[in-house]
Recover the amino acids of this structure.
DNA sequence: TTCATTGCAAAAGTTTTGCACGTGC
DNA sequence: GCACGTGCAAAACTTTTGCAATGAA
């Protein structure tokens, strides 16, 4: 996504396209490694040593609220973020602690037919192919 | 579940059956409302005013580690706990903030065939039948 | 008796708040 | 120019740690 496209996206959500917002969104979309607040903060410090943690919290919270990014709560320790908002699952390996994306083809549920579903999050955990051999 | 059964369950997991553990587990299984640390603490205070928050953290963490309870991370603010460890989904209503349980009949995924899956968590959000009318 | 577990107090870590200043529109 | 957003420092809140005392097995 180009900087101009990101700007347009923010403006269509009535957000000002500040350099900080653009940089954070760009970082998330170019690093689909599901980083947490601290990783985003450390990256932003490199760009501008005056960056404040408050800004990271503000930006991530507002982007999540507006549905532009996902908050991934698969980890007990920290919330991770993902700029890919298409429906997909997350697998956490207990060996290497990495998060893997996977496709969700179909889900069949009972008991929420009359509910209005807005978001669907799916978290699996276990061992990835490499770690299960050990 | 009777107190004796809970005791046996703890012992079979090499946990000592302390009154605190039993009371916390009993509270969770009798109150399937997905309470958080603070709610468990407030309940325990009524039973014994000397209860420490540390104990709540210790007990919930160890029970979760051993798979005797589930940690539900559907809420941004707090982790909730559930003594029902059978596979089921959780729906969070953005209107009344309640958590509803639902059945998962089938999930079809692509990309993790070679993974060894130990846990499956599914979180939906949106509006419950009552709240969607407003 | 022994050692896991508890409760307390303090420390560490995380997130929010209040406010002055700066900047996108 | 105006309102939104940022950065800073402090406050608030959450969770962990170290340790002495307790009590389950």
């Amino acid at each position: 996504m180009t900087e101009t496209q990101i700007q347009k996206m923010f403006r269509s959500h009535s957000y000002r396209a500040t350099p900080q917002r653009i940089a954070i969104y760009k970082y998330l979309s170019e690093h689909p490694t599901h980083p947490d607040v601290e990783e985003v903060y450390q990256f932003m410090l490199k760009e501008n040593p005056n960056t404040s943690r408050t800004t990271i919290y503000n930006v991530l919270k507002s982007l999540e609220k507006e549905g532009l990014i996902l908050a991934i709560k698969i980890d007990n320790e920290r919330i991770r973020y993902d700029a890919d908002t298409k429906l997909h699952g997350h697998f956490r390996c207990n060996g290497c602690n990495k998060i893997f994306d996977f496709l969700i083809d179909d889900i069949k549920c009972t008991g929420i037919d009359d509910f209005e579903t807005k978001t669907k999050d799916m978290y699996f955990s276990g061992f990835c192919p490499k770690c299960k051999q050990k």
Observations:
- The mean pLDDT of chain A is 95.
- The first strand of chain A starts at residue 70 and ends at 72.
- DSSP finds five helices and five strands in chain A.
- The radius of gyration of chain A is 17 Å.
